[in-house]
Specification:
There is one protein chain. By secondary structure, the chain is an alpha/beta fold. The chain has a single domain, classed as Purple Acid Phosphatase, chain A, domain 2. The chain is 21% helix and 24% strand. It has a six-stranded mixed sheet with strand order 3-2-1-11-12-9, with helices on one face. It has a six-stranded mixed sheet with strand order 4-5-6-10-7-8, covered by helices on one side. Helix 1 packs parallel to helix 2. The chain is globular.
Length: 204
Amino acid sequence: MTKTAFIGDVHGYAPALKAALKLCRIENVTTIVGLGDFVGGYNADEECVNLVRKHFSVSVRGNHDEDDGRELQRQINDWLIRLPESIEHEGWLVTHSSPRTHRPDESTDAWNCFDDCKFSRCVVGHAHQPMLFRFSDANDFEADVLDATGDGQILEEDCRYLLVNPSLAYNRSGQQNPGFSIFESDTQRLKIVYLDLPQISRKL
């Protein structure tokens, strides 16, 4: 059995990243996939990047990870800008913002992602507005919106899904706690979990 954690939009917020890593150990997570935006926003960029490099299996680059003249150690900055924009990981397309031009933060945008792009499962960050979308042939121009909190959702093999992951920094959904998601391969269960600490207040 493998358990994969999707963690992104850390934005230099070390307390949330450390709490997420602790919960991953408790949950027996076997793989951590980074969704980018590890820096930019809070005050612990280098500490967060070092934790990501130590504990994450693979990662993609976010828009805040681009070299914008910030003062980081050269090796850390070089590592960030060399990260790929997207990867395929165990059946998931992983990218920071969207598999197409517009970020999928509502059901119509999600439907267009399904329509324009070829993927079975995709996970993105960037929007700071966690949602789980499922493609439906029955709906024209809108995707199904599913609740992946609590016990989560069992992903059906013959359905297509798009996960907009929570942020470890702040969310635009009104949720006041940092969050990430965990996918269990054996049961095909995907759940969004939230941490018991406040988010940062700065809006990025």
